Amino acid sequence: MNKLYNNAHEAIIDVKDNNTIMLGGFGLCGIPENLIQALVKKGTKNLTCISNNAGVDDFGIGLLLKTRQVKKMISSYVGENSEFERQLLNGELEVDLIPQGTLAERCRAAGAGIPAFYTPAGVGTEIAKNKEIKLFNGKEYILELAFQSDFAFIKAWKGDALGNLIYKGTARNFNPMMATAGKITIVEVEELVPIGSLDPNIIHTPSIYVDRIFEGKNYEKRIEKITTQ
Amino acid sequence: MNKLYNNAHEAIIDVKDNNTIMLGGFGLCGIPENLIQALVKKGTKNLTCISNNAGVDDFGIGLLLKTRQVKKMISSYVGENSEFERQLLNGELEVDLIPQGTLAERCRAAGAGIPAFYTPAGVGTEIAKNKEIKLFNGKEYILELAFQSDFAFIKAWKGDALGNLIYKGTARNFNPMMATAGKITIVEVEELVPIGSLDPNIIHTPSIYVDRIFEGKNYEKRIEKITTQ
Amino acid sequence: MGLNKFQIAQRISQELNDGDYVNLGIGIPTLIANYIPNNISVIMQSENGLLGMGPFPKREDVDPDLINAGKETITTLDGSSIFNSSESFAMIRGGRVNLTVLGAMEVSQAGDIANWKIPGKMVKGMGGAMDLVASAKNIIVAMMHTNKKGESKLLKKCSLPITGINCVKKIVTNLAVIDIENNNFILKEYAPGVSVEEIKNATEGDLIIADSISEMCLQ
Amino acid sequence: MGLNKFQIAQRISQELNDGDYVNLGIGIPTLIANYIPNNISVIMQSENGLLGMGPFPKREDVDPDLINAGKETITTLDGSSIFNSSESFAMIRGGRVNLTVLGAMEVSQAGDIANWKIPGKMVKGMGGAMDLVASAKNIIVAMMHTNKKGESKLLKKCSLPITGINCVKKIVTNLAVIDIENNNFILKEYAPGVSVEEIKNATEGDLIIADSISEMCLQ
């Protein structure tokens, strides 16, 4: 079975209006640049995006906000995007803010066939509203549900045509869990390597999770805060 | 802070009667040979052991069964040990049999601060008895609890003095999750390597989980079923 | 009577699709790996933490750190990956394994399977079977049609403690290929030299003869 | 009045123990890394997936694939490890991080903390703060004693949406070191040149003066 695609445009051909898409990355680090740009070009509307952050005004998911393709963002921190804040305060954008660890675990649970789990994060806060609370060993925990998503857009460092992936540095972040969680998982890699060239012992994402893969182009890898000694 | 110990005997000095111990390994593959042997020598009694299997009659956890140090086994498959079967059928040994994926996930949950999660494994079977059942998207799931354990006995391939670990081949199995789950995690490695010699990008167990580490000796690595072409 | 275990494996191999991720249980299912059609590629998952399992090693290549879920020494193929037990069952529960083939002691016409325990007699444990049958999209049972006493293993209801409910989709035995639909066994194929009457007699549960019934083809 | 933000960081660095795994929030907490005593070794966790975070890189070593939770470029030290976000919060919720230092907009005398939202004004999100405060064994808040309007940030009850309950153990401000015990602020140390009276006036919540009160020592 062929998972290999020529480019982002071909790989997202069946993404539709109103779909839910997970996007890997932390800030602008490890985001699927090619897939986001292809989605902007495609113009798909009313998307729900699950991503830790919402990019900046003119890069990353910010590009999709600018074109008003996003109906709802599910994120943990959205502080770097003024267009986002404007749309939100004007009621033009739905936002679901979720503790970062809960966001990560709800992705992991989705991929792991765990429909729900208990976490201490958010107990006693507005996050706990309308959620089931249960005591374990005398401490309160909140029941949180696995996410459901139509697609996962993933960025990896190296990958083979079967879909085995490795990530580089902290560009790993949400990518591995989201790769397990999409109904259809689409991966862009910086370098497509021959099958058999990756050591089985150091694969971060086993091929079984990956439905489509292609080698991305022209990575900008913009840095939000270049900080030096 | 020094995590480095000279040998298994020093590393298990505070293991006590009635403790619960997790032991990594699948069959005899990836078991903490040095730690098991030290525990036999120490003679600690009434132990509860959490391990996928129970070893064979004269190796692995089988050694602890022979000396009657084990009060209770929590495992998924115990078919390779006739002494085990004898003790069990005679009522000399308590046994809790758990689906393998649930066993793995209860270890993972323990390390991840998740007190409980839902799984489909065992729905409609005797495993579900007296457990909470809940519907998600019209399907039944069982609530399963994180394990609690006093110690985790882990076998890794290479490790540094901080406790960063990598495993080899399928000797990985339950070791990484159990390493996260022990109140005190004790690791034996085949090779102790200098701090900084392991690539941060391929660490299987980050140092934060490891409390004690030593280089093991005289690995037998017995094979249960040598099968060749 | 009918097929031997190698032929059962051979027949099941026809159910594989190109690109399938497959988990094969201990016993007859393991033999299926020997009969994969040349024109397709499937990837074997071993629940102790390996995807891309290869054949058994040559004697000089035996590695104690590389075994399958049956504790046998094995090899890895190009494109394989190794992971921990939690990740292994994550992909199983997550529904990413396309086909699971298991042995069984009993199967009911509702698709319930019993293969882990004989009360008072056998206490080996369920291993990964309960996770597999609770999660797999497609489950095929490979087994003999009757037990050593000659009693049917295809029952109205399982008498042994069950491993999972409503999960088996197809059964391939020494006598027949049988689908499970709407709480019935549907006889689809008979083994060469085996009569429908013989299969009926060996099946305790309700058996419906499919319109399209045919003789098994083993090339 | 009192300490500047660098001195607050310096004072908190005295709370570190050898071998501690530490998570430092954005702002003043980040500065603590510059004041780690020479005779101890601590390991920094960054919740985006790094253990063993080093200093900021030299200009020529900047790597876009290596950032901290504040999105700043950083480096790794020998013995570091990189992992995914789920693993990162597993170790946080699992209680393996020994000390968490956070900024705050408000802290109550019950140890509640508010630092993620100003209704109708600021909608940045909680990031990892809710997971950290719900899980960490030891949480220290680093902040100015009063806000820009001169109002106390140490309150009987938080007025802003809270991030976590009963979690803050110690507060280090420009004016004082204050522990939280039994629903009270306990004044333990005052900043050089700051009077107890000034601290009392800047604290809205109930403040108890410790018997052992002393001046902060900043070497």
CATH class categorisation of chain C: Alpha Beta
* CATH topology (fold) name of chain C: Glutaconate Coenzyme A-transferase
Largest sheet of chain C: 10 strands, mixed
Oligomer: heterotetramer
Provide the domain count of chain A: 1
The main pleated sheet of chain A reads as: 8 strands, mixed
Q: Strand pairing plus helix content of chain C: what structural class?
A: alpha/beta
> SSE order of chain A, as H and E?
HEHEHEHEHEEEEEHEE
Provide an overview of this structure.
- The complex is a heterotetramer, with 2 copies of chain A (229 residues) and 2 copies of chain C (219 residues).
- In chain A, strands 1, 2, 3, 4, 8, 9, 10 and 11 form an 8-stranded mixed sheet that branches. Chain A has a 3-stranded antiparallel sheet with strand order 5-7-6.
- Chain A has a single domain (8-113, 147-215), classed as Glutaconate Coenzyme A-transferase, CATH 3.40.1080.10.
- Chain A has 229 residues and is α/β, with parallel strands linked by helices.
- Helices cover 20% and strands 25% of the residues of chain A.
- The termini of chain A are far apart.
- The model of chain A has no long low-confidence stretch (mean pLDDT 96).
- By secondary structure, chain C is an alpha/beta fold.
- Chain C has a single domain (5-215), classed as 3-Layer(aba) Sandwich (Glutaconate Coenzyme A-transferase), CATH 3.40.1080.10.
- Chain C is 16% helix and 27% strand.
- The longest helix of chain C is centred in the first third of the chain and has 9 residues, at 5-13.
- The radius of gyration of chain C is 17 Å and the shape is globular.
- Classes of the chains: A alpha/beta (229), C alpha/beta (219).
- Chains A and D meet through helix 4, helix 5 and helix 6 of A and helix 3 and helix 4 of D.
